[in-house]
Amino acid sequence: MTAKLIKAALLGGLIGGAIDIAYAMIVSNLSTGMAPDMLLRVVAGGVLGREQIAAGGLPEAALGGVLHFAICIVMAAVFCLVSLAVPALRRYWYVTGPVYGVGLYVVMNYVVLPLSALAVKSHPEGLRMVGELASHMLGVGLSISAAARWVIGRG
User: Fold this and answer.
1) What is the per-residue pLDDT across 38-88, written as a single tens digit (0 to 9) for each?
2) Domain boundaries in the chain?
3) Dihedral of the CA atoms 64, 65, 66, 70 (nearest 10)?
4) Quick one: which of 89, 85, 88, 64 has its CA closest to 12?
5) What are phi and psi of 57, to 5 degrees?
6) 154: Cβ contacts below 8 Å, ≥ 6 apart
7) Distance CA 116, CA 119 (A)
8) Does the global pTM surpass 0.70?
């Protein structure tokens, strides 16, 4: 079971992370002209602080990418672990995944980002919020729950 758990967490975290970061890169570029490497440096800024975002380069962008995917894999691992105790999470993956995505959105925007080195206090509004919420529900949450269902089983 351990091998299946690791495989599901990696699969769900990597797919969900790829969808989420692709969405963020496209929207950031179209709305503000932010280059993809700058977005990844902003992710790393959550650990390094604002000064490193502007002064940083490829190493900071790479760190941002690693941090982003590590967080997504941990999110997937949590879902998979809980789904072992509550198999209905895998049985109804098409409902529980998007619900989990809403929870992830709330935790990221209202807990993690405010506590990060960037101390983000503002939150997306309007269509931006709807898009980010949809990305977390369908891109991240659904990918994680589908991977758990596919790899670990129905339950």
Assistant:
1) 999 999 999 998 888 888 899 999 999 999 999 999 999 999 999 999 999
2) 2-152
3) 100
4) 89
5) -145, -140
6) 87, 90, 91
7) 5
8) yes
